[in-house]
Amino acid sequence: MSGSWFAYSASAVSGPRTADRATSDAFAHIADEVLSQRTQALVDGQQVRHGSGKANNKTRLSAELKKDQDAAIRSLQSRKTRLAELGEAYTAADTRVAVDKATVTGGKATVQVTEHTTLTYKKLRGDEPDNTDFRTRYELTLSSKKGGGWELTSIKSQDAGPVAVNEPVAAKAATVTDDGNQYPDGTPASTKYPAPASAPKVKTGGAYDYNAMAKYAEKYWSSYNPAYRKFNGSGGDCTNFISQALNAGGWKPVPGSSTDYRNWWYDASKGQSQSWVGANEWAWFTLSNQRATNLANVYQMDIGDILQADFNKDGSKDHSMMVTYRSSKGMPYLTYHSTNTYRKSLASVIASYPDARYFAYRT
Questions:
Q1: How far apart (Å, rounded) are the C-alpha atoms in residues 169 and 83?
Q2: Is the dihedral of CA 318, 137, 299, 45 positive or negative?
Q3: pLDDT tens digit string along 314-340?
């Protein structure tokens, strides 16, 4: 690490100021160290590759954050054990961090970063995909220390979706209020593996092209189709993303009032139905219009099927994901927006949220 680590003088400026290149690089190094350590807790054998290269012993964490990091590592090591019980492991990983924005005000800094991590699946069953990828955004806060150094005081995810593979789960309070109305909420699915046999799914040649759905999702997992609006700042983009993929595979719009869950549509100039973007409304539309049926077990899902999760069992569905790959041994792999993720195994989702309530839809 160059001497620029201590080059910035926080006292030289009183108002907000964009950090210079050397200071931004120092912030990226800190974030990279923290996130790479978390990734390492999941990987068998090899050292995780990461953007900052060799670890630097001048990296500083506050005493409180050091405790949080130690707890995160223990939590992820437990997740690694749960994954092994479900038949999953990783042989290698690569974590990279880029600074999107860094602002310094006096002795405080606020930094927005994006992490991109690739994990290589261990071939335990034989036909796992090569890897899973995800991009997730964090906000860092730092304080300057005497002598010109910086100390990381907090690192918080900025994404609304499920935690990344290498991110510990933070407890969330139940916030849903029952309005007294009855909706077609569906039936929760078992998470027991292996699942009972289900009817095979025909991927192409029928009313819908499920391979086209998966191809669309895997094309835009880390980017956004400019033909559609994004909803990252409005509760998350996950259901908007699966609606796009379903539309690409042949789901037809149902016009009408945007607030009536029995309708499902998108218009580039007029907006979209609530069922296009809302997880609960999508489920109500899907079941009431018989676009899909509930599966008894999550491991029965196949390409083009949808998984929804109620993470804290408060009666409100929190997230929507699409299966874009399925191994011959019956493991579905999910691709989704909000914590943008490519081919994350169902085992990994359940290992992160073992107590969640899941809904599996045969589309």
A1: 15
A2: negative
A3: 999 999 999 999 998 899 999 999 999
Tokens of 26: 């120092």
Angle between helices 63-85 and 21-40 (to 10 degrees): 40
Taking alpha carbons only, the member of 135, 124, 50, 70 closest to residue 100 is 135
pTM of the model: 0.87
Contacts of 11 by beta carbon, 8 Å cutoff, 6+ apart: 106, 107
**Residue 281 token pair:** 């409304």
Single-letter amino acid, residue 82: R
Question: What are 155's two structure tokens?
Answer: 């690192």
Q: What percent of the chain has pLDDT over 90?
A: 71
CA 108/CA 12 separation, integer angstroms: 12
Residue 290, burial from CB neighbour count under 10 angstroms (0-12, 13-18, 19+) = exposed
Which residues, 6 or more positions from 102, have their beta carbon under 8 angstroms from its beta carbon?
Answer: 18, 19, 23, 24, 27, 109, 110, 111, 112
Question: Which of 291, 266, 331, 20 lies closest to 150 in space, CA to CA?
Answer: 20
| Count of beta carbons in the 10 Å neighbourhood of residue 122 | 17
- Residue 310 to residues 54, 99, 162, Cα–Cα distance (Å): 40, 32, 10
pLDDT interval class at 173 (50, 70, 90): very low
CA 347 to chain centre: 14
Per-residue confidence (pLDDT) for residue 98, from 0 to 100: 94
Residues in the chain: 363
* 155 in Cβ contact with 31 (< 8 Å): yes
Contact between 103 and 18 (Cβ < 8 Å): yes
Q: Does residue 5 carry a pLDDT above 70?
A: no
pLDDT in tens, 13-42: 456 788 888 889 889 999 999 999 999 999
Amino acid, single-letter form, for residue 166: N
